[in-house]
Design goal:
Strand content: 5-15%
Number of strands: 12
Shape: globular
Order of helices and strands: EHEHEHEHEHHEHEHEHEHEHEEH
Radius of gyration: 22 Å
Helix content: 25-40%
Strand order of the largest sheet: 8-7-6-9-10-11-12
Number of domains: 2
CATH class of the largest domain: Alpha Beta
CATH architecture of the largest domain: 3-Layer(aba) Sandwich
Number of helices: 12
CATH superfamily of the largest domain: NAD(P)-binding Rossmann-like Domain
Structural class: alpha/beta
Oligomer: single chain
């Protein structure tokens, strides 16, 4: 479907960088959500009338109801690696192409994951709050004594691109013993590059001094870390989640932190975000950040530009750089 100008029309569901908009405007009539408010399902369906493509974020749910209301839609391009906001069965049934933005955020996200691990292990948030509150009036030998990072055991649950990048940082930069659990084991060459050893999930929980979560969200991964899993961890262990909200049972985690059944946690993602479980806001031994693991200007721009290139490539040449359901390209 084309607009009155004769060019295809697309929607950018959230505000993006001007250079991305200009790039898209070379090919399409572009409708952009300038206010950057999250569109309700009804608002999104209304804005998509007459549009053949849309750039989405995790805020926009693409499901059967939306696709039925927007039968002219041909491509949905997520500005993210994860795509749990996509009902892939419905998207496939509708013959719509779905894309995401892998690779471009791997190193930036791994950097942040390690920063969050360091902040959690060394109790940076706790100590800063203490200092800002004017409570620091003397030095003590054990003041905010945290956990060792160098030479400790790093456990990684989920060993895709980001998990591997974190493993390399831990093994090569900090001399850590790296263990991991994944749905499938890496080939020996990749394991060697990461200096990582495959273990069962139970051993991972039992042995890790610092447990990093980087697995994709799915129904099977919901509350992959809950009360039973937390009970298997060391009391001195830290838990870092840069994956997706819902992978951790946040209520169970808050209880474990309050009762010091694990030492600390660092969380960039939350179940039901942007809402945060209120119990997490009342425990001191947690570092909380608002889903910013990939947030550098260079990386976020690259993510949005890749999503734009997917839309341009598909709608002008029938090809996309990073399709999630490439079988649609041949139909």
């Amino acid at each position: 479907m084309t607009s009155t100008s004769g060019r295809p029309a697309i929607l950018i569901a959230r505000k993006v960088f001007p250079e991305v908009v200009a790039h898209l405007q070379q090919h399409f009539d572009v409708d952009m959500n300038e206010t950057d408010d999250v569109l309700s399902p009804q608002q999104l369906a209304q804005r998509l009338q007459g549009k053949v493509g849309v750039l989405t974020t995790g805020s926009e749910r693409v499901d059967a109801a939306l696709l039925t209301a927007c039968p002219q839609l041909k491509i949905v391009a997520n500005i993210a690696v994860g795509f749990n906001n996509f009902d892939m069965a419905a998207i496939n049934a509708a013959g719509v192409l779905a894309t995401n933005t892998p690779d471009v955020l791997t190193e930036t996200t791994a950097d942040f994951g390690f920063a969050l691990l360091m902040a959690t292990a060394r109790r940076l948030t706790e100590s800063e709050h203490f200092l800002r509150a004017g409570l620091w009036n003397r030095w003590t030998l054990d003041m905010f004594a945290g956990a060792e990072v160098h030479g400790s055991t790093l456990g990684i649950l989920g060993m895709g691109r980001i998990g591997q990048a974190i493993a390399r940082r831990g093994a090569h930069g900090f001399g850590m013993r790296v263990i991991y659990h994944n749905r499938s084991r890496l080939d020996p060459e990749l394991e060697g590059a990461c200096k990582a050893a495959y273990v069962s999930k139970e051993e991972l929980l039992r042995e890790a001094d610092h447990l990093m979560l980087v697995l994709p969200y799915s129904a099977g991964a919901h509350h992959a870390i809950g009360a039973p899993e937390l009970a298997q961890m060391k009391r001195t262990a830290t838990l870092i989640n840069i994956a997706r909200g819902g992978i951790v049972d946040d209520a169970a985690l808050a209880a474990a932190l309050r009762e010091r059944r694990i030492a600390a946690a660092g969380l960039d993602v939350f179940e039901g975000e942007p809402k945060v479980h209120p119990d997490l806001l009342t425990v001191p031994n947690v570092v909380l950040t608002p889903h910013i693991a990939s947030s550098t200007m260079a990386t976020r721009t690259a993510m949005a530009m890749l999503a734009a290139d997917n839309v341009i490539g598909f709608l002008t040449q029938g090809q996309a750089k990073t399709p999630l359901n490439p079988e649609v390209l041949s139909t």
